[in-house]
Each structure stands twice: as structure tokens, then as C-alpha cells.
Specification:
61% of the residues lie in helices and 7% in strands. The chain is mainly α and 151 residues long. It has a two-stranded antiparallel sheet with strand order 1-2.
Length: 151
């Protein structure tokens, strides 16, 4: 996975491959309803992300409507990945603040992500242990069923 981080003028972007956006750069103005359809997040969630500082500044049209860009879609994708790790919202907001503060925060961002990675690895180990128990039980019942058919 490649992590592209830029200064506070733009946003942090996390992508595995060049992103496929609905519109090319320069023509990438999306309404909140289009972002809802693209991301699966609710409009309420998008507004909340903006209010708590998890989203960078969102451009507005002359009528005050939010206008999202491709970089915002990329950021939302990254935030979704952070959410799936179980990272607390407060840590995600702190990460977003660090991004806006600039390049001198790379070390603190790295530490935050490394702590999250440790937590994810611990959860994976717990899930693997749970999977082993399930596999054992499934095998036990399958063997018991075969034995009862022979009797």
C-alpha cells in the first residue's frame, strides 16, 4: 500500500493503486448526495465528519452547497479503512489535525498508525484463535454425525 501525504494545503491520501474516480481531476465537483451514493455514508455522517474536524475544508458553491473533490473521496476511503481498524474517532480526528499541521508531524502520525497496526494485529490473532475453535467444533460435529450414521 502506498501512502501519499501532502502538506496542509491538501489532504492525506491512502490508496493501493491509482484511484478510479467518477470524474477526472478538474471536473471533480460532487454534491453531498453524489458522495453519499459513491461512499455509502449518510449525509449526516459527512456533515458530522466535517463538524468534528475529520474532513478537511470542503469547498462550497456560491449558494453554499458543499462541493467535494476527488481528494475528498480519497480521504473518505482512508477514513473508512481507519474505522475498520477500530481506531477511535478521537484518534482519527487527531490524525487529521496532524495532517493539516504539515510535514513536521510525520513522526507523530507514524506512531499513531503503528499503534493502530498493533491493535489490528492483536485482533487478528484473537480472530484466528476463535476460528481455530470453530474449525475444531465443526470437525467434531461432522465426525459425530458420520459416527451416528454408521451406528
Amino acid at each position: 500500500m502506498t501512502v501519499l501525504e501532502t502538506t496542509s494545503a491538501t489532504t492525506d491520501i491512502c490508496v493501493a493503486a491509482p484511484p478510479v474516480h467518477p470524474r477526472p481531476e478538474g471536473q471533480d465537483h460532487y454534491t453531498i448526495s453524489e458522495v453519499v451514493a459513491w461512499t455509502g455514508l449518510s449525509a449526516h455522517t459527512l456533515r458530522w465528519y466535517e463538524r468534528i474536524g475529520l474532513m478537511p475544508h470542503i469547498d462550497r458553491s456560491h449558494t453554499g452547497q458543499r462541493r467535494f473533490r476527488n481528494r475528498d473521496l480519497d480521504w473518505l476511503d482512508f477514513v473508512g479503512k481507519l474505522r475498520r481498524t477500530g481506531m477511535p474517532v478521537a484518534d482519527m480526528v487527531r490524525y487529521a489535525e496532524l495532517v493539516r499541521e504539515g510535514d513536521h508531524t510525520f513522526e507523530e502520525r507514524q506512531e499513531l498508525l503503528e499503534a493502530t497496526r498493533r491493535a489490528v494485529r492483536a485482533r487478528i490473532a484473537e480472530l484466528q484463535d476463535t476460528l481455530a475453535v470453530l474449525d475444531y467444533k465443526i470437525s467434531y460435529y461432522a465426525d459425530a454425525h458420520r459416527a451416528s450414521e454408521r451406528a
